[in-house]
């Protein structure tokens, strides 16, 4: 018969765990191996990044000296949001990759992203072409395009591909200015590629954008024939 006066025993505590360990040991079970892991092992950061990178650039390598220096500089400025937390990209320098069509700008830009992600720091990043960005930000019913623009502007690392390749208008110039100006003011690392010479880029994006890009970015000029038309392509 159950003793009504018996006091209930508190679960947990050192005594309970010791008894459990003794029972497991008596049954030949290693207590360490009996632990239950209810969360899956994390996917490697680089593998997760590669799943978002276009297939053509999934194995891109940032093997340019200026790219390698940029990765080191951005990584050195990463900070931990709290004690013991992983360092995160917050601010850093930007790059402007300039070259003719097929000179390898996009390949190097994605290589830079892969190198930074693999540098054992946290990196939230987004990549888009200028044309796709304008298309996604055009006002339309049911979409908060202002919120989308703000998300792009605040993203810790942004890759903006083919700036100046789209048809320009006062609206695209305003969008580009708002994006670049925010990232310029907050010193957010940005990778920008363009086919245009600097004088032509100024005409495409406006003086205000060109002026900020000149100050916030280090320029990488790529020369050579169109790789897409070569034997390797």
TrEMBL record:
Listed SMART domains: AAA
The keyword Cell membrane is annotated on this UniProt entry: no
AAA+ ATPase domain boundaries: 91-226
Keyword Ligase attached: no
UniProt superkingdom: Bacteria
MF terms (GO), sorted A to Z: ATP binding
InterPro entries xref list: AAA+_ATPase (IPR003593), IstB_ATP-bd (IPR002611), P-loop_NTPase (IPR027417)
Keyword annotations: ATP-binding, Nucleotide-binding
Transmembrane portions of the chain: none
Gene3D superfamilies: P-loop containing nucleotide triphosphate hydrolases (3.40.50.300)
PANTHER family named in the record: ATP-BINDING PROTEIN RV3427C IN INSERTION SEQUENCE-RELATED (PTHR30050:SF4), CHROMOSOMAL REPLICATION INITIATOR PROTEIN DNAA (PTHR30050)
Name this polypeptide is given: ATP-binding protein
Gene source species: Streptomyces caeni
Organism ancestry: Bacteria, Bacillati, Actinomycetota, Actinomycetes, Kitasatosporales
């Amino acid at each position: 018969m159950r003793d009504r006066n018996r006091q209930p025993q508190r679960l947990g505590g050192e005594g309970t765990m010791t008894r459990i360990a003794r029972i497991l040991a008596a049954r030949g079970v290693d207590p360490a191996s009996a632990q239950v892991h209810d969360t899956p092992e994390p996917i490697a950061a680089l593998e997760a990044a590669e799943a978002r990178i276009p297939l053509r650039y999934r194995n891109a390598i940032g093997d340019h000296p200026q790219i390698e220096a940029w990765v080191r500089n951005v990584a050195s400025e990463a900070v931990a949001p709290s004690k013991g937390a992983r360092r995160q990209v917050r601010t850093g320098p930007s790059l402007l990759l300039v070259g003719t069509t097929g000179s390898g700008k996009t390949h190097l830009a994605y290589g830079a992203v892969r190198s930074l992600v693999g540098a054992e720091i946290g990196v939230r990043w987004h990549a888009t072409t200028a044309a796709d960005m304008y298309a996604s930000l055009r006002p339309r019913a049911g979409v908060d395009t202002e919120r989308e623009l703000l998300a792009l502007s605040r993203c810790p690392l942004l890759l903006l591909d083919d700036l100046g390749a789209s048809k320009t208008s006062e609206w695209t110039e305003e969008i580009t200015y708002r994006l670049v100006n925010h990232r310029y003011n907050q010193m957010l690392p940005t990778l920008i590629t363009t086919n245009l010479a600097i004088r032509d880029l100024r005409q495409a994006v406006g003086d205000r954008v060109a002026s900020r890009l000149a100050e916030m970015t280090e320029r990488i000029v790529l020369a050579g024939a169109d790789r897409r038309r070569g034997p390797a392509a």
